[in-house]
């Protein structure tokens, strides 16, 4: 991951320059017309696979910031019709699917507008920064035939796929302790990060990645949480927290911790330092960039997993679930659950109390 840039996400900026590892062409039996609403967040997860999706057409982009569009330097974006208002785009275009990105505040309204038009949605995370918004999205989906996914690409990344396989094999036994970390360089952030109503908080914004990974990789449920968050020094951050910590109780009595910060020095070799450790009744498996995926158990000496599973695309997986009838690797139930957990964990920090995650 690159360093965040002002007004345009690092992922969008890199989307036009990065070359995907050789992956197979995926065909569908019809033309699929998609639109992109907003240029913030994991837009590269949508743009990068387009080179191997010849039946998809990015027909329109809604983004009020000219700088963000210009900075993307992406051929698919340059060919698409441009709108500054997403509502005008939805009124005028004949679409099958909408990718909803942009600032966190207002994302729920954009998702709801797409659902009301019967359009499938793949959205940046979180879907909503308030519980009432999340409830409205869930109810709207129940009333429609629309399918929805959320941009949680870490679940499709080789190291975490490997951790999932290790746990599923039974080698480390039943997981009872999870430790997760996300540490980022602060870089230069767009103005929306600095206001609670448009950012929503660091726990929902980046914590949702690890909440999803902890549940999915371990096979355990998170049932209670207590959180702390602060804006440590750096008054220019405004409402944006740069240090958070959450302790979860697992459904089997174990515990999980998640600590996050924007304190990674600019001199660090990578933008982020993500870590996940799973300790079970028979062993421990963990991942960090410095050491790779490692495992030690009652049946094996400490070892590094050299052969990792192949990288997968969340967007392609979602499309194949829509048009090939395959089960989606990321279920709607998991999406809503992860979003609900991070909002409750944020509530714990704001109200200074333990919360039940039911």
Quick structural overview:
This protein folds into two domains: 142 residues, NAD(P)-binding Rossmann-like Domain (Rossmann fold, 3-Layer(aba) Sandwich); 175 residues, 2-Layer Sandwich (Dihydrodipicolinate Reductase, domain 2), CATH 3.30.360. Helices cover 32% and strands 26% of the residues. The N terminus is likely disordered.
Topology:
Elements: H1 10-15, E1 32-37, H2 44-47, E2 56-62, H3 66-72, H4 75-79, E3 81-83, H5 86-92, E4 97-100, H6 107-116, E5 120-123, H7 131-143, E6 148-150, H8 158-169, E7 175-185, H9 196-199, H10 202-218, E8 222-230, E9 243-250, E10 255-264, E11 272-280, E12 283-288, E13 292-297, E14 300-304, H11 314-323, H12 332-351, E15 355-356
Parallel strand pairs: 1-2, 1-4, 2-3, 4-5, 5-6, 7-10
Antiparallel strand pairs: 7-11, 8-9, 8-15, 9-10, 11-12, 12-13, 13-14
Helix pairs in contact: 6-7, 8-10, 10-12
Structure description:
There is one protein chain. The chain is α/β, with parallel strands linked by helices. The chain has 2 domains: 10-151, 3-Layer(aba) Sandwich (Rossmann fold); 155-312 and 340-356, Dihydrodipicolinate Reductase, domain 2, CATH 3.30.360. 32% of the residues lie in helices and 26% in strands. The chain has 12 helices and 15 strands. The chain has helices spanning 10-15, 44-47, 66-72, 75-79, 86-92, 107-116, 131-143, 158-169, 196-199, 202-218, 314-323, 332-351; strands spanning 32-37, 56-62, 81-83, 97-100, 120-123, 148-150, 175-185, 222-230, 243-250, 255-264, 272-280, 283-288, 292-297, 300-304, 355-356. The strands form 2 sheets. The protein has a 9-stranded mixed sheet with strand order 14-13-12-11-7-10-9-8-15. A 6-stranded parallel sheet has the order 3-2-1-4-5-6. A hairpin with a 3-residue loop joins strand 12 and strand 13. The longest helix is centred in the last third of the chain and has 20 residues, at 332-351. The radius of gyration is 20 Å and the shape is globular. It starts with 9 loop residues before the first helix and ends with a strand. 42% of the residues are buried. Residues 1-20 have low confidence and may be disordered.
């Amino acid at each position: 991951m690159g360093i965040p840039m002002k007004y345009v996400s690092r992922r969008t900026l890199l989307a036009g320059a990065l070359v995907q590892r050789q992956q197979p062409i995926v065909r569908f039996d019809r033309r699929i017309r998609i639109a992109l609403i907003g240029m913030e967040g994991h837009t590269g997860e949508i743009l990068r696979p387009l080179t191997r999706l010849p039946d998809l057409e990015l027909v329109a982009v809604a983004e009020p910031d000219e700088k963000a569009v210009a900075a993307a330097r992406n051929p698919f974006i340059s060919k698409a019709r441009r709108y500054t208002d997403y509502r005008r785009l939805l009124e005028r275009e004949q679409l099958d699917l909408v990718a909803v990105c942009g600032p966190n505040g207002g994302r729920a309204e954009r998702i709801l507008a797409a659902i009301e038009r019967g359009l499938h949605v793949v959205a940046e995370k979180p879907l909503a920064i308030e519980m009432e918004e999340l409830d409205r999205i869930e109810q709207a989906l129940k009333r429609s035939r629309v399918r929805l996914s959320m941009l949680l690409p870490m679940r499709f990344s080789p190291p975490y796929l490997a951790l999932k396989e290790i746990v599923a094999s039974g080698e480390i036994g039943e997981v009872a302790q999870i430790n997760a970390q996300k540490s980022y360089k602060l870089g230069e952030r767009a103005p929306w990060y600095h206001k609670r109503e448009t950012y929503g908080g660091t726990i929902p914004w980046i914590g949702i990645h690890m909440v999803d990974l902890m549940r999915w990789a371990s096979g355990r449920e998170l049932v209670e949480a207590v959180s702390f968050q602060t804006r440590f020094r750096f008054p220019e951050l405004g409402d944006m927290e740069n240090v958070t910590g959450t302790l979860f109780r697992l459904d089997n009595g174990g515990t999980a911790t998640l600590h996050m910060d924007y304190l990674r020095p600019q001199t660090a070799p990578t933008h982020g330092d993500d870590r996940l450790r799973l300790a079970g009744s028979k062993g421990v498996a963990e991942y960090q960039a410095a050491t790779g995926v490692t495992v030690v158990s009652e049946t094996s000496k400490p070892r590094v997993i050299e052969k990792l599973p192949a990288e997968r695309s969340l967007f392609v997986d979602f499309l194949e679930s829509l048009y090939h009838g395959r089960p989606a690797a990321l279920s709607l139930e998991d999406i809503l659950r992860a979003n609900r957990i991070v909002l409750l964990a944020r509530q714990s920090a704001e109200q200074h109390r333990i919360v039940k995650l039911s």
